[in-house]
Amino acid sequence: MKKIVSVRCFRCGFEEFRFPELYLNTDFQTEKLPVNVLLMEHRKAGHILINTGCTKLLKKSPLAYSAYLLKHKLSFGKEDSIIEQLLSNDMDPLCIKKVLLTHTNAECCGALPLLPRYELLGTAQLLYVLKFEEDSPNMLKSTLPPENVPIKAFNVFKGETPLKSCFKYVFDVLGDGSVLAVDISGAANAMTGYFIPEENLFFAGDAAIDERALDNDLFPTEKLLSAQYDADEYLSVLATLRRFHRENPDIRIMFSHSGEIPV
Q: Which fold has domain 4-254?
């Protein structure tokens, strides 16, 4: 019996990307790509979000938040909110039991304050960034969750997985091997990728704009590299993902802005 009952992808707004400014060897032009949020249903743990998308309802640090949205060319309406999309699918937001984050940018954790009750899970490094590093370039006070949110760090995964051929540490998100996590820092501090073995799906956050960076061996421009938290780590993770993609062609690698809905 599968541990993961279902995985759904919600498009919580859009971000504009000018590909000629971001990659040296591409014919792709300016595109608006979705901000993807994944909703998993675990047989025992219930409904789990990977990222939350943005919201226009935040009241903390509104100027900094608005400046971030403008800089990143993010657009979304009320109907794009993960809360509105849950409600439109006859789901009470209270059904969200746990939240996972790829990183702490606004389009990943911006809607955390709108969720009524949940447990936040992450690597120890990611949780530290979220809680303490308020001056980090990818951290906005307006995206911080309430102080009373339960927070729990992952344990190391001791079983077998194809992730171990490419990543030094693999973490067991729920303690049963159904969701695994690896560090893919570079685009952001403590960025985390999530692998769902039963779905053959690896969600790699903003480690690349979308899967075309892997399929077409696109090379980042100086402009794109300068926008990353650590340019050298960004290139290293990109090379690692390309290797993982070649060695495991049956595993779908999806990014925060992948245009195709995978499941």
A: Metallo-beta-lactamase; Chain A (3.60.15)
